[in-house]
Task: inverse folding
């Protein structure tokens, strides 16, 4: 996750069309997959494979990402989405859950872009 945080810190948010990005995240092609992965990860967490310590660390990560993106963009919606993405990625990794779509989402961040639309 540290590598992804470093990529976020280096991204240029000045020319980002936040409204367009948020609209594309709301498209079914993105949202349906995000929810699908989220539901699987939550199910795995509920099976008892997730400690309170892991939950606290994930909460700290999400807060750090939210604050960073909000500082860069002054947009709480975008900060919330990116924070949720990082929480989902972190949980999936902790639980050993692998998914092709999630890998594509991570690849977007690794390339310095916020995932949206069709990955």
Result:
């Amino acid at each position: 996750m540290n590598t992804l945080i470093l990529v976020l810190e280096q991204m240029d948010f000045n020319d980002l069309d936040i409204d367009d990005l948020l609209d594309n995240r709301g498209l079914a092609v993105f949202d349906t997959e995000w929810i699908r992965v989220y539901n699987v990860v939550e199910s795995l967490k509920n099976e008892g494979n997730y400690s309170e310590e892991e939950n606290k660390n994930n909460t700290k990560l999400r807060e750090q990402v939210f604050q960073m993106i909000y500082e860069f963009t002054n947009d709480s919606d975008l900060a919330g989405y990116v924070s949720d993405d990082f929480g989902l990625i972190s949980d999936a990794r902790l639980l050993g859950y692998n998914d092709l779509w999630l890998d594509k989402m991570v690849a977007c961040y690794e390339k310095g872009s916020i995932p949206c639309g069709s990955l």
Remarks:
- The chain has six helices and no strands.
- The chain has a mean pLDDT of 93.
- The CA atoms of residues 43 and 50 lie 11 Å apart.
- The radius of gyration is 14 Å.
